[in-house]
Amino acid sequence: MKNWAGNVTFGTERHVMPGTIDELSELVSRSPKIKVQGSKHSFNTIADSSDTLVSLKKFDQIGEPDPETRSVRIGGGVTYGELAVHLQERGWAVSNLASLPHISVIGACATATHGSGRTNKNLSNQLLDLEVMGQDGNIRQIAAGSPEAKLAAVGLGAIGLITTATVRIEPTYQVQQWVYEDLPFDVLTSYFDAVSSHGYSLSLFTKWTGDTVDQMWVKERTGGLFEGRSECFGAKRATEKLHPLKEMDPVNCTDQLGVPGPWSERLAHFKLEFTPSAGEELQSEFFVDFKCATEAITALRKLGSELAPLLFVSEIRFVAADDLPMSPAYSTDIVALHFTWRPMWDQVRAVLPKIEAALAPFGARPHFGKLFTMSPTRLAEVYPRISELKAYAHEVDPEGKFMNEFLTNRVFTNRQS
Ligand SMILES: Cc1cc2nc3c(=O)[nH]c(=O)nc-3n(C[C@H](O)[C@H](O)[C@H](O)COP(=O)(O)OP(=O)(O)OC[C@H]3O[C@@H](n4cnc5c(N)ncnc54)[C@H](O)[C@@H]3O)c2cc1C
User: Fold this and answer.
1) Which pLDDT tens digit goes with each residue over 355-388?
2) Strands 212-221 vs 201-206: parallel, antiparallel or unpaired
C-alpha cells in the first residue's frame, strides 16, 4: 500500500480496520507497534509502521453541533469533507480549511495542517477535548486548553490513537473568491503587510521566476472588507475561472469570480467531488516568521531558475500565531512557503538542502507532513519545544508502541523505535 502521492510504500502488510472501540483496544494491546493511517496524504513516512497500520475509517460518527459550547464531536477517522457537509447542512462551520477537503481531521491536525489568512490559526487550533487510546488499550480524556491538549493537538501521531475529538465550530458563513493575475513582486515585498492583509484567506502562486506573482487568490467572507475590484496592488482580476497551474482545466477548483457560496465550497482550493491537484506530485513547505518573510521571498527568488524546472507551482500563505508547542506558528505569525514538486525525487532531494540553507537565516521550520532534509538537531533548534512532546510521548508510551522510524530518526533523537 502507498500514500496518496505514491512516493511512500508502507513498511507492513498488516492493515487493520476495526469497527468498535473494543476491537481497537484489543488490537492496540497485542500489537508491538501501531500507527493510525489517516487519509495517507503526508508525503513522508510519518504515518508508516513496521508492524500494524490501523485505519479508523469506521470511526466516522459526527454528532449534532452544540450551539451552547459551539463544538461538535467527531470520530477519529472523519475527514474535513465529511465534516464540512455535515456542518453546512446544519447551519454551522469551521473557521478554515486546507487546500483540499479530503484529508482526515485528526491526521491533518497531527501535522499542523493550515489554510491561509492573517487572522486564521492552523487547523490544530480547532481541536478541543480529546479521547486518546494509550498503549494499554485504555482511553484517557484530555481536556481542552490543558498542557496535554496543546501538545496532543500537533502530536505527530506520537501520543496515542485519537478516537474522538470535539471541534470548535461557528455559525455558517458565505465566502466569495476572486483570482488576480500578475502581482508585481516589488509591490508585494514593498507593501507586504498591506497585501497580505487582503481578504479572509489569501494565497499567492508563483514559480519564483519573472517579475510577478502569477496568481493571487483572495477569499473573503461576505460582508468583509475586500470587494473584488478590477485591480489590486497592480494585479488584474481574472475574467475567467483559473487553476493554480494556469494550463490546467479549473473544473476541479472551487468557484471563483466573486460568486458567493458556503464556506465549505470556497475555503479549499479544490472541490470535494474531484480528485485534487495535478495527480502525481511531491510537496515541501517551510515556515518563517512574518517579519522575515520579504527577505525569505527574496532569497527564494534568487534560486528561481533552479527551482522552476522542478516545480508545478509554489504557494505563499499566512498563518496566525498560536500557543501550541509543536505548531510552526507557536507564539509568532508566520508565512508558509510551499512547493508542489513534479515527481522528480532525486532532483528535489538535491535542491531541498539549498532551500533549507537559503531559509536558515530566517529560522525556517519544515511542515511535518511534507518532504525536508533538515537534521534532527536543526529541527530541534527551529522547533525548540520538541523535547516537551518527546517527554510527553515517553510518559504515555514508555515502550514506544506509537514510535516509528520517522519519529525516532528524523524528529526525536535518542528514543528507541
Ligand atoms: C494534495 C495535497 C494537498 C495538501 N494541502 C495542504 C494544505 O493546504 N495545508 C497543509 O498544511 N498541508 C497540506 N497537505 C498536507 C496534509 O494536510 C498533511 O500531510 C496531513 O497530515 C494529511 O492528513 P492525513 O489524514 O492524510 O494524515 P496521514 O498522512 O494519514 O497521517 C499523518 C499523521 O497523523 C497520524 N494520525 C492520523 N489519524 C490519527 C488518529 N486518529 N490518532 C492518532 N494519530 C493519527 C498518523 O499516524 C500520522 O502520524 C496536503 C497534502 C496533499 C496530498
Assistant:
1) 999 999 999 999 999 999 999 999 999 999 999 9
2) antiparallel
pTM: 0.97
> What is the C-alpha separation between 8 and 14, in angstroms, rounded?
16
Pair (190, 300) in one structural domain:
yes
d(CA 273, CA 177): 19
How many independent structural domains does the chain possess? 2
Distance between CA atoms of 207 and 211, rounded to whole angstroms? 11
d(CA 293, CA 291): 6
Q: From the alpha carbon of 99, which atom of ligand 1 is closest?
A: 8
Residues for the chain: how many in total?
417
Are residues 89 and 238 part of one domain? Answer: no
Tell me which residues have their CB closer than 6 angstroms to ligand 1.
4-5, 35-42, 46-47, 56, 76, 98-100, 103-104, 106-108, 110-111, 113-114, 156-157, 161-162, 276-277, 283, 367, 369
Radius of gyration of the chain (CA): 21
| 244 secondary structure, DSSP code | S
